[in-house]
Amino acid sequence: MAAKTWTTADVFAGRGGARTDEGGTMSGNLTLRTTWDGARADVAVRYTGTSQWYVLAGSPVPCPDEEESRDLHQAVVDAVRAGDGAAVPRYVRVGPPVRTG
């Protein structure tokens, strides 16, 4: 299976910005990218209009399917817009609970 990628440009980070592993806290106009490989999602951020990507704090996270990876991407966009040192939300299954017994 080929990796799937979602990118959202022109996300203005809220007060406190977004935390990255390599670049510290980023603020202002950002572009977010989520790449899903079938088992996990990698989330990166860059200043819109530049080419250097930085790993968003908390990435990668386990993500078992494409729909949940799209939902995760939107949750990251919302978190960055809210600011407060946004990071990738810890993985929480979206949808009904899975029965284990």
Average pLDDT metric:
89
Largest sheet: 5 strands, antiparallel
**Distance N to C terminus:** 30 Å
Radius of gyration: 14 Å
Shape: globular
> Which percent bin holds the helix content?
10-25%
SSE order, as H and E? EEEEEEEH
What structural class is derived from the secondary structure elements? alpha+beta
Number of strands: 7
**Beta-strand percentage?**
25-35%
Low-confidence stretches: 94-101
How many helical stretches? 1
Could you walk me through the main structural features you see in this protein, from its secondary elements to its overall organization?
With 101 residues, the protein is α+β, with helices and mostly antiparallel strands. The chain has one helix spanning 66-82, and strands at residues 4-12, 18-19, 25-26, 29-36, 40-47, 54-55, 61-62. Strands 1, 4, 5, 6 and 7 form a 5-stranded antiparallel β-sheet that branches. Residues 94-101 have low confidence and may be disordered.
Summarize the structure.
With 101 residues, this protein is of the alpha+beta class.
List keywords for this structure.
101 residues; alpha+beta; two-stranded antiparallel sheet; disordered C terminus
